């Protein structure tokens, strides 16, 4: 009787798997077709068109921060079709050519998207000064308060679909709770208002070095707290491992971490964070943008290049004067920066996380893990089980009824209060 009661669920699962296989097989074919289309259009519109990864079968060098997922996203349909394309076109593999001096035809060239070209090449940083210190009866600032204000700083690092606005529009507005602390939020390299160079592979060290030169050195930060969300956690851990004596504490919100040996960590991260499933829609979108280079470029062509149109439609439909930062942030990158950051930071960085965690643990840096119990993007066991095993002294906070976004959004005050208490205990 039990066998008959489970057959509807089994049949539904089989039908769902068959449908997913058909959809992703279609996307395999579409991606190869788009490869030919973009090769033709790039050859016409660009002086030095860059090769896509369909025609590069192995990394250009032995750089361990260049992810193998850029070259080895295996699919029988895709591989067979690409084999025919290589034979038909007699394509030779070679390195990427010199980047174009102007934006690619498929990228947006509006003033806000290319403003960084006229700057000094530094990351865009949003700073929030601490509240004015208390004064004594004579109206002078106490030495203890002055010292705290001068020494306390915190760096906030956003995730893959965000920018510094994630923090500036939320936690920074609760700065009264985080008294005597100067808050800094950066737009990561390739995101928001920061530089988006076409000759950069957006490796983990590229992001870390950009934060060092644009913020840590510029502000002469001798010590600081680190707060990061999602993908930003990988970068924050790399920064902490490089400067363990400067970091006072680390707060990781929804950190992606999967147990795997270094040789397969990149592939494990890709398959877990961008699993080929149709549901939920967020996971399907991640799979499309992570597995299909040319389909992803087409999505960026439609969304990013035409972001002013979508922003206008948003204000028209919502009758709001300002575009929600979550909508605006989705379009503030190029396909080149997004594609390489996804693979070289999220996937490639997975191979380096264990050594970074070991450095943090050895340095005795206090760590707080915050994770939404209902997170569909990064499973809660990443924090509750995997990271907790690597950082046994870490403080773990599981947020009920919270997902990947609402673990921050909607509970800004509570999160700021948790930060203040954690920072105080870390002194």
UniProtKB/TrEMBL annotation:
Residues 155-408 form the AB hydrolase-1 domain. InterPro entries: AB_hydrolase_1, AB_hydrolase_fold. Pfam families: Abhydrolase_1. It comes from the Eukaryota. This is AB hydrolase-1 domain-containing protein. It comes from Urochloa decumbens.
């Amino acid at each position: 009787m039990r066998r008959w009661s489970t057959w509807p669920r089994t049949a539904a699962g089989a039908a769902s798997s068959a449908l997913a296989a058909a959809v992703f097989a279609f996307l395999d074919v579409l991606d190869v077709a788009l490869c030919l289309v973009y090769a033709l259009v790039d050859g016409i519109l660009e002086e030095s068109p860059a090769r896509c990864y369909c025609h590069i079968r192995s990394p250009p060098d032995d750089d361990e921060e260049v992810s193998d997922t850029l070259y080895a996203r295996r699919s029988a349909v895709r591989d067979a079709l690409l084999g025919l394309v290589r034979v038909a076109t007699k394509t030779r593999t070679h390195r990427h050519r010199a980047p174009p001096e102007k934006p690619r035809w498929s990228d947006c060239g509006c003033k806000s998207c290319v403003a960084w070209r006229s700057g000094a090449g530094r990351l865009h940083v949003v700073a929030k000064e601490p509240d004015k210190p208390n004064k004594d009866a004579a109206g002078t600032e106490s030495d203890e308060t002055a010292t705290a204000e001068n020494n306390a700083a915190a760096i906030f690092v956003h995730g893959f679909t965000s920018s510094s606005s994630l923090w500036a529009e939320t936690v920074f507005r609760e700065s009264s709770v985080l008294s005597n602390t100067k808050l800094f939020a950066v737009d990561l390299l390739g995101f928001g208002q920061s530089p988006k160079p076409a000759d950069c592979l957006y490796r983990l060290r590229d992001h870390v070095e950009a934060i060092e030169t644009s913020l840590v050195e510029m502000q002469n930060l001798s010590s600081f707290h680190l707060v990061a969300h999602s993908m930003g956690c990988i970068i924050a851990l790399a920064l902490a491992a490089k400067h363990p004596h400067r970091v006072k504490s680390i707060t990781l919100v929804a950190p992606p971490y999967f147990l795997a040996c270094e040789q397969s960590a990149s592939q494990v991260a890709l398959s877990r964070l961008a699993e080929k499933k149709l549901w939920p829609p967020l996971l399907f979108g991640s799979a499309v943008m992570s597995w299909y280079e040319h389909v992803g470029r087409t999505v960026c062509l439609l969304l990013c290049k035409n972001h002013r149109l979508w922003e206008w439609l948003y204000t028209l439909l919502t009758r709001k004067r300002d575009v929600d930062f979550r909508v605006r942030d989705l379009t503030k990158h190029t396909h080149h920066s997004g594609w390489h950051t996804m693979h070289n930071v999220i996937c490639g960085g997975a191979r380096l996380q264990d050594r970074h965690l070991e450095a943090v643990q050895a340095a005795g840096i206090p760590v707080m893990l915050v994770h939404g119990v209902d997170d569909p993007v990064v499973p809660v066991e990443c924090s509750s089980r995997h990271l907790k095993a690597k950082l046994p002294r870490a403080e773990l906070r599981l947020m009920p009824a919270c997902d990947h976004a609402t673990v921050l959004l909607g509970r800004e005050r509570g999160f700021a209060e948790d930060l203040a208490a954690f920072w105080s205990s870390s002194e």
